[in-house]
Amino acid sequence: MTEDPEFQLWIMAEVPSVLMLLSDYVAAGVQGITIGTNDLTQLLLGVDRDHPRMAAAFNPYHPAVVRAIQQLVQTARQLDISCNICGQALNRHPDFVRRLIEWGITAISVEPNEWEAVDQILL
Q: Cα separation of 63 and 93, whole Å?
């Protein structure tokens, strides 16, 4: 695909099927994943986060979402690929950030106004 040895092909893990097919993607050449918690939550729970009456049910810390994220991180680790995560409100749940690190997450992406709060969690 490219002659640049530093080029890496990553995919977004925003749909549940990535969890089931991650090893196939890696076999095809994928070198890392970014877990998009907003879309993954919406698709796992069947909740439209932008719908006024449904937004209250949007919960990125629902057990099904947390378990899917854990499996993605651990599978990426087993497959020896990098795995990062992005999404809203990571800074509001320090315990979840700590669990991500325990599971083997390699990077956390947050909004610029949230990085200091996440940095404090990591200290």
A: 14
E-strand ranges in the chain read 10-13, 32-36, 82-86, 107-109
1 has pLDDT over 60:
no
Q: Give whole-number Cα distances, 8 to 33, 62, 74, in Å.
A: 11, 32, 20
- Helices vs strands, H then E, count in the chain: 5, 4
Cβ–Cβ < 8 Å for 73, 83? yes
pLDDT band at 55 (very low <50, low <70, confident <90, very high): confident
Amino acid at 122: L
| Backbone Cα Rg of the chain | 15
Model confidence pLDDT, tens digit, residues 56-71: 899 999 999 999 999 9
| Domain 10-122 is found in CATH 3.10.150.10 | no
